[in-house]
Design a protein that fits this description.
Layout: H1 21-28, E1 33-40, E2 43-50, E3 58-64, H2 72-83, E4 87-91, H3 110-117, H4 122-137, E5 142-151, H5 153-164, E6 170-174, H6 182-186, E7 192-196, H7 198-201, H8 204-213, E8 218-222, H9 230-233, H10 241-259
Parallel strand pairs: 3-4, 3-5, 5-6, 6-7, 7-8
Antiparallel strand pairs: 1-2, 2-4
């Protein structure tokens, strides 16, 4: 009888996960990045700060994240702004709201973070942003000018914050809706710039009318064919040409407007 013995040789090949290009950009950035804990009235707002490489004080830009919380993408926007010469701060407005008192990264997933976003007390959001703006204004690297910019949920918060905070240099609203209260609009003391999508577009006539009636500066741009969140989606490998064109055009427009502050 012949006995055939087959030996299976198992080769262990380590699994290499493709690097997320957004995370890779953050990790390779030559700019100084740091997390700071901004505290007020017993509350702490964890904030991602990126410093520009320049020898003169810079205008600060406070970024208000989407309804998914402070993501790597928003942090990468901060890094790009610093690359362009601005002092960028991205607060995590879900600080202390995750299980165990954690922040965005401590939620089990985006859905849970999104649900928590819509439970945030509006007055807490404004107070958090007040604290971050005060912190930004007092940094030695800052020139005293502070603008805000927001995306989606954050875009609406940026517009609302402009009705609350009179000393802002500007508010940049990316696909966020404007306030519907004439008294709130009348309190705006800075120019407001908007970037919109089909859902948000329906609110433009009312916003434009209120801003004009109050004698305020409101300039918006509609990018044909682009969808909601085109600033983020325009960077993905599977994005549409319209989203990519809108993202590129909006970036250039944003930088031009920042130069006028």
């Amino acid at each position: 009888m012949r006995l055939w013995i087959f030996t299976l040789l198992l080769l262990t090949v380590p699994f290499v996960r493709a690097q997320d290009p957004i995370r890779e950009r953050l990790e390779r950035s030559p700019r100084h990045q740091e997390w700071v804990a901004i505290t007020y009235d017993g509350r702490t707002v964890h904030t991602f700060v990126v410093y520009p490489e320049r020898d003169t004080p810079a205008t600060a830009v406070v970024l208000i994240h989407e309804n998914r919380g402070l993501s790597d993408w928003v942090r990468s926007v901060a890094d790009r702004l610093a690359e362009a010469g601005y002092l960028a701060l991205a607060p995590d407005l879900l600080s202390g709201m995750a299980p165990g008192g954690g922040r965005t990264t401590d939620f089990p997933g985006e859905d849970a973070a999104r649900e928590a976003i819509y439970r945030l007390p509006p007055e807490q959001v404004m107070a958090d942003l007040d604290a971050v703006v005060d912190y930004a204004r007092n940094l030695p690297a800052a020139n005293g000018k502070v603008a805000v910019a927001g995306f989606c949920w954050g875009g609406a918060q940026a517009f609302r914050f402009a009705t609350h905070r009179p000393d802002l240099a500007a508010a940049f609203v990316f696909y966020g809706t404007g306030p519907d209260d004439p008294e709130a609009v009348a309190r705006i003391q800075c120019p407001v710039y908007g970037g919109n999508d089909a859902r948000v577009n329906a609110t433009i006539p009312r916003t434009d009318s209120l801003m004009r009636a109050a004698g305020k500066t409101f300039v918006y741009e509609i990018y044909e064919g682009a969808g909601h969140a085109f600033m983020r989606r325009g960077e993905t490998a599977d994005t549409t040409d319209a989203n990519r064109r809108a993202r590129d055009a909006a970036w250039q427009r944003w930088l031009r407007l920042l130069q006028t502050l």
